[in-house]
Specification:
- This protein is α/β, with parallel strands linked by helices.
- 53% of the residues lie in helices and 11% in strands.
- Strands 3-2-1-4-6-5-7-8 form an eight-stranded mixed beta sheet, sandwiched between helices.
- The model has no long low-confidence stretch (mean pLDDT 92).
Length: 422
């Protein structure tokens, strides 16, 4: 069933009674009873402290939580000058549908600024609210991405794929393209609403990279906000990130298809302003199960080696083949080879058709695990600053290698046609 709106009728009537708002802050959530109260209280304190004369609305957009997320949201004491709406959105279950409801509410209320904060953020402060809101209201930015201080193994999808590809493709150094916490101007919100994506996988984990890429390709005024340490529910890449990885990368590749006419002409990259004072904090370390990552890679090797061998260059295939025999302590893929492999996979996705593309994302996952294991081995003796330098160095390699992507993207390869006929 397709939905023309994510807003249920009782929520719409509530919004219509409000009429107008200056600031809308939305919290997409699902089963977050342990963190939602802290997020709401911090947001409302920030609004009270920094914007006492503004008409502010906080929208909790819930995906039908089966715990007490909504009850925890409702029972909190309310500020008399801040409106809080706790709702269940309509549409495909996922963060994207929650974002759709928040955007539609922002449009109905003609709000000057819309901010999104994830519901599992434990490190949110009142300063986060001011930096995000002022960036739009005072500095006239249309899109603000978060700029966090993160532990070196937090954000493995970003650090090994999404940042590198986004930067190389579209030419902007947005460090956290899928960070989860964003701010938008009303014109950009209304641009998002018009897009025909809300009944697709973008309504799930693909939403963040879609929001960022759409902003970059529409050439709006963008910035990053210094938010300091990001502390949230930790997800081990070998244990819990598979669905997120597959939906993010699938969306990333689909956007490459849609924006081919833009990214092929982009050379090099430019820095993106970072607003707000630097926050000096050190994130808490945590461990990653490298052995599990390597086991998952080896399982994938046994399942997909014949296809991998046909997709990647002979040199890179030899490296993958050697990895299968390599001990954990020596397990490593050079960045140049990883860039080529990832670009080969993106080109294969481009050439493949229909349901075969789902297989592409599945066969990528073990290679992602191998890359994360490599990154851990490379940086295990480094502090966060050293690991961050490695990420930046790797991103530059992806820029240098971009011509290889374009070459592979443009060429006809017999295997692609052969595989599409299978």
């Amino acid at each position: 069933m397709k939905f023309s709106t994510a807003i249920r009728q009782p929520t719409r009537k509530h919004l219509e009674r409000l009429g107008k708002a200056d600031i809308v802050i939305g919290i997409p959530c699902f089963n977050n009873e342990g963190t939602i109260a802290h997020v709401i209280q911090t947001i409302e304190r920030g609004l009270s402290l920094h914007y006492p004369k503004k008409h502010c609305v906080v929208i909790v957009a819930d995906g039908g939580s089966v715990d007490d997320t909504r009850e925890e949201s409702e029972k909190l004491e309310k500020s008399p000058w801040i409106e809080r709406i706790v709702s269940i959105y309509r549409g495909i279950p996922g963060k994207g549908s929650a974002v759709r409801e928040i955007f539609e509410a922002t449009s109905l209320l003609r709000s000057d600024v819309c901010v999104l904060f994830d519901s599992d953020i434990r490190s949110i402060t009142t300063g986060w609210i001011q930096r995000m809101v002022d960036g739009v209201l005072e500095d006239s930015y249309d899109f603000i991405a978060p700029y966090y201080t993160r532990y070196k193994y937090d954000g493995t999808i970003t650090n090994n794929i999404v940042y590198h590809l986004t930067r190389a493709l579209y030419g902007y150094r947005v460090r956290q393209p899928i960070g989860g916490d964003f701010a938008f101007s009303l014109p950009l919100v209304e641009e998002y609403i018009t897009k025909d994506v809300w009944e697709t996988n973008i309504a799930k984990y693909g939403i963040d990279i879609w929001l960022t890429t759409t902003a970059l390709t529409h050439k709006v005024k963008i910035a990053q906000a210094n938010l300091g340490v990001k502390i949230h529910d930790i997800k081990d890449p070998g244990e819990t990130l598979r669905p997120m990885f597959q939906e993010v990368v699938s969306t990333l590749f689909k956007l490459m298809e849609e924006n081919e006419g833009i990214w092929k002409d982009v050379k090099n990259s430019q820095s993106v302003p970072i607003i707000g004072p630097e926050v000096i904090q050190q994130p808490q370390p945590f461990s990653i199960d490298v052995s599990r990552l390597i086991r998952e890679f080896k399982i994938g090797y046994n399942n997909y080696k014949e296809i991998w061998k046909k997709i990647v260059s002979s040199e890179d295939w030899q490296i993958i083949e050697n990895l299968y025999q390599t001990s954990e302590k020596d397990f490593f893929i050079e960045t140049e080879n990883w860039a080529d492999i990832l670009y080969d996979l993106a080109a294969a996705y481009h050439h493949w058709k229909g349901e075969k593309r789902r297989l592409m994302i599945s066969l990528m996952t073990p290679l992602y695990y191998a890359r994360v294991a490599s990154f851990v081995n490379l940086t295990k003796e480094m502090n966060n600053e050293g690991a961050e330098k490695v990420v930046e160095d790797q991103a530059r390699v992806f820029e240098v290698k971009k011509e290889y992507l374009i070459k592979r993207w443009n060429e006809g390869v017999d295997f692609y046609e052969e595989f599409n006929e299978m």
